[in-house]
Design a protein that fits this description.
With 368 residues, the protein is an alpha+beta fold. It has nine helices and eleven strands.
Length: 368
């Protein structure tokens, strides 16, 4: 419990009472002449008063725990401001430890972040250099491909002009695909014709064409000088020479389709380019639908329709059904080998012997 503090007061104590001294007036001639008395003031002694400091009795109250000696009280207080300022930090230095571990950890983290940043910068520079190199390579390749494509287009244009300028099948054979097989077909096709083609006027369209993952084909649409438009399929051979597919250009048939449908030559097989569609016309020898598959057959620029039949247990039937399934039941353009058996009673029925190509072009030379 804290001790009760007592107040210390000063109380004046008058030991003696000083009686005022009598005033003595002196008169002289001068004072009388002036008519005014001369007053002499009596200097009163300064009343001294003794003041005593009331201090609590030592027995009643303990003033301090330690009473300094008189030599300490009268010793002059001499201080050095510099030493005082220097001493200010000493207690803190003695009583507070500097957390060097945290500084070390922060330094390690800072160094790690700097190293990581440098690594990222190096990786970014490496990636940027790689991208620049790749971009330059791509641009270089693109430029080279554009140059090669430009030269290829020039060669295609030159071959097409020579082809439509030719006046004999021998000249045509130099610019067509499978020339050894196709040359006799051209001789038969152009027999008795004075002119083979009209000269080329201009190219309307030229674009790459992919057939069965083969990217060495082009499709060209040209206008002739008689303003007739013809579409060509061109193959770029391994030597880089363009070759025109003559069979698709003229849609070659071994004989006229309508003539074949009307004359119905029996006992001979023919390879026709036809449109194939599913059908269910079962009659005469082909009335059993469990044994035969029925297909509608038509040709380009023709009026006659024939019905081709393939046995359900033969590969040709499965091939034709697969093509129709891929097209969603729509008609497909194919090359098939058909035959009219001897003594056949069906007036529009033919037998489909083999699927030669799933389109009107032979990618590879067909079997003889």
């Amino acid at each position: 419990m804290a001790r009760e503090e007592k107040q210390v007061r000063l109380r004046p104590v008058e030991d003696t009472v000083v009686e005022p001294s009598p005033v003595i007036r002196l008169e002289s001639k001068e004072t009388l002449q002036r008519g005014k008395p001369l007053r002499l003031d009596v200097v009163q002694e300064e009343v001294q008063s003794n003041r005593r400091l009331d201090v609590p009795v030592h027995e009643d109250f303990e003033i301090r725990t330690h009473q300094p000696g008189i030599d300490v009280l009268i010793e002059p207080l001499v201080t050095n401001p510099d030493e005082m300022e220097q001493d200010w930090g000493k207690p803190a230095a003695h009583h507070r430890n500097i957390p060097w571990g945290w500084f070390a950890l922060m330094g390690i983290l800072l160094a790690g972040s700097v190293m990581w940043s440098l690594k990222q910068v190096r990786e970014a520079d490496a990636i940027a250099d790689k991208l620049v190199h790749t971009t330059q390579s791509v641009l270089k390749n693109d430029a080279e491909e554009d140059l090669l494509a430009g030269k290829l287009i020039d060669r295609i244009e030159a071959v097409t002009r020579k082809f439509f300028k030719a006046t004999s099948t021998a000249e045509l054979a130099r610019h067509v695909r499978h020339s050894e097989r196709v040359k006799p077909l051209m001789d038969q096709y152009y027999a008795g014709k004075s002119a083979l083609h009209h000269p080329l006027l201009r190219t309307k369209l030229l674009q790459p064409l992919t057939l069965d993952s083969r990217a060495n084909f082009w499709m060209q649409s040209v206008e002739l000088q008689n303003h007739e438009t013809r579409n060509l399929i061109i193959e770029i051979t391994d030597s880089g020479e363009p070759k025109i597919d003559w069979e698709t250009l003229v849609c070659y048939q071994p004989m006229n389709w309508d003539q074949f449908a009307r004359s119905r030559p029996a006992g001979t097989s023919y390879d026709f380019r036809v449109y194939l569609e599913p059908d269910n016309f079962f009659s005469h020898e082909f009335a059993d639908s469990s044994r035969w598959n029925c297909f509608r057959l038509t040709a380009l620029d023709s009026e006659e329709t024939l019905f081709g039949y393939a046995k359900t247990d033969e590969a040709v039937a499965a091939d034709l059904l697969a093509l129709l399934n891929q097209s969603g039941g729509q008609r497909v353009s194919i090359i098939v080998r058909i035959n009219i058996p001897e003594g056949l009673q069906s007036r529009r029925g033919v037998v489909v012997e083999k699927l030669l190509s799933p389109r009107w072009i032979y990618l590879d030379p067909p079997e003889a």
